[in-house]
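haha ok so turns out i had the wrong file open the whole time. this is the CORRECT one, sorry everyone. sequence first:
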Amino acid sequence: MKEGVIFTLFLIFLTSVCDTVNQLFLKSAINSLPAPSGNILKIVKFILKLILIPRVWISLLFSITSLCIWLFVLSRADLSFAFSADSMHYILIAIASRFILKERVSFKRWLGIVFVVIGIVIISFS
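then structure:
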């Protein structure tokens, strides 16, 4: 495999890591508030409370970092390759959900993740 491809895959992996951390911070922030119910006023208050949580802003930083890296990746690789390889975030999200958020991940979901990994490997070598 060419050095440029390995570096591009590393950058794609880095965007997936940033996206995963982004989602973990957002989930943590949203879980810290009671779910909104009912009218539009309660929903607006909920959103305003959410915006004041520092984890939301940290999440935004990871999202911006991911976007910047992704734009660089797109300048180096075909979209079809980059987007397929970016499917790694499905794997990272499932692992983080299971071990960090302590969510249950079913056998069928793990099996699906295995198929995603196989697909990533096949696309990476094509």
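The helical segments are 3-31, 40-51, 54-76, 79-85, 88-99, 107-124.
again sry for the mixup
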